[in-house]
Design brief:
Number of domains: 1
Order of helices and strands: EHEHEEEEEHEHHEEHHEHHEEHHEEHE
Number of strands: 16
Number of helices: 12
Shape: globular
Strand order of the largest sheet: 4-5-8-9-10-11-12-16
Bound molecules: iron/sulfur cluster
Radius of gyration: 20 Å
Helix content: 25-40%
CATH topology: pyruvate-formate lyase- activating enzyme
Distance between the termini: 30 Å
Largest sheet: 8 strands, mixed
Structural class: alpha/beta
Length: 343
């Protein structure tokens, strides 16, 4: 995994608890600047990529709301962090911000306290559903990549310990990185890691600064051995000439590398590409090769997102066919890897 080594740290005074101070001390060479609000940064000169690799923000999350999800999890927990060191060309976390460096929220205990309060308001026992048969599932990595956040502080380790001991809740997150430190966190089956996978040659174009697909595949058995539930996240699925052949190759590789015990518990989720007009404009300048794969208006239709942004996704009828093709291939090559949901 490439190391995140910020040279500029912005912080709000209320972020400097013990955890926040430790992070500040971990980067003695970085310049530091106090700011009033974590989501109002001073004007930054550098471009999207540079800001993500050079800047870290420390803040205290004040809005501690758990949101309904219903797909990858029952709920989305308040964010441990927002923003990412990676710069994937389709990333939805980056869509609505001019610049999006990692903002680490240092009040982890308050965030987990909000999850605890929330889960005790839910009916118990839980009605089993595709996210889990017994526990309420909380996605802790919807606005960042948890594997990177774990290199910055003990917040992820604290969260894994919280869920390990919780009688009603479990954690889940998708990742495009392999952080071996997580192997020491002892989740005891109460954290589900979902490795994101796509054909390697496409990943090389659209996944910026992430770990390779081969590295993610190679980590699967180790994470299971270390006590994680391990699923895979086929996202985003991108349509191009030969896409299904590439997925066949990926499925065959998955079939080869995953140990039978891991196969017995592994499930998947499949999300076809949705792209964003603002990202499209930025990619034309920063990553035009990736954009050729992502922006194919003759196959796509516009959709206004619930946040008001203009997105495009594959045309309805075309997508129905793509979903059928994907499901058929999964049944043929990796029938053991049940699809929890596909859209
Ligand atoms: S790794 Fe995930 S959060 Fe980070 S840029 Fe890529 S898609 Fe976004």
């Amino acid at each position: 995994m490439r190391t995140f080594d910020p040279n500029t740290i912005f912080y709000t005074p209320d972020a400097l608890n013990e955890r926040g101070l430790k992070v500040l001390l971990a980067y003695p060479e970085a310049s530091r600047e106090e700011i009033a609000q974590h989501n109002r940064l001073p004007e930054l000169e550098a471009n999207h990529y540079k800001v993500k690799s050079d800047v870290l923000v420390l803040g205290r999350l004040k809005t501690l709301t758990c949101r309904e999800s219903g797909r990858s999890s029952d709920f989305v927990s308040p964010s441990l962090a927002n923003g990412c060191f990676g710069a994937c060309a389709y990333c939805y976390v980056d869509r609505n911000k001019r610049v999006n460096p990692i903002t680490l929220f240092t009040n982890t205990e308050e965030i987990l306290g909000a999850v605890d309060k929330h889960v005790y308001k839910q009916v118990w026992p839980k009605m089993p559903n595709q996210t889990h048969g017994l526990y309420y599932t909380y996605d802790i990595g919807c606005n960042s990549d948890i594997s990177i956040d774990a290199t910055l502080s003990d917040s992820v380790q604290t969260a894994v310990a919280f869920f390990r001991n919780h009688p009603r809740a479990m954690a889940t997150f998708a990742t495009k990185f392999v952080n071996p430190d997580l192997l020491t966190y002892d989740p005891q089956g109460k954290t589900r890691i979902r490795f994101s996978l796509m054909p390697a040659r496409v990943s090389k174009l659209v996944d910026v600064r992430t770990d390779s697909i081969e590295a993610r595949l190679a980590a699967i058995n180790d994470f299971y051995q270390a006590g994680y539930e391990v699923h895979v996240n086929f996202a985003p699925v991108i349509l191009y000439e030969g896409w299904l052949d590439d997925y066949r190759e990926l499925f065959e590789r998955l079939n080869e590398v995953v140990h039978p015990d891991v196969k017995a518990q592994m499930q998947s989720e499949v999300i076809f590409l949705t792209h964003h007009y603002g990202m499209h404009q930025m990619n034309l300048e920063l990553n035009p090769k990736a954009e050729q794969l992502l922006w194919t208006p003759d196959q796509q239709e516009y959709k206004r997102s619930q946040w008001g942004g203009l997105n495009i996704r594959y045309q309805h009828q075309l997508k129905a066919q793509l979903i059928e093709d994907f499901k058929q291939l999964q049944q043929e090559v990796i029938p053991w890897c049940t699809i929890r949901y596909i859209f």
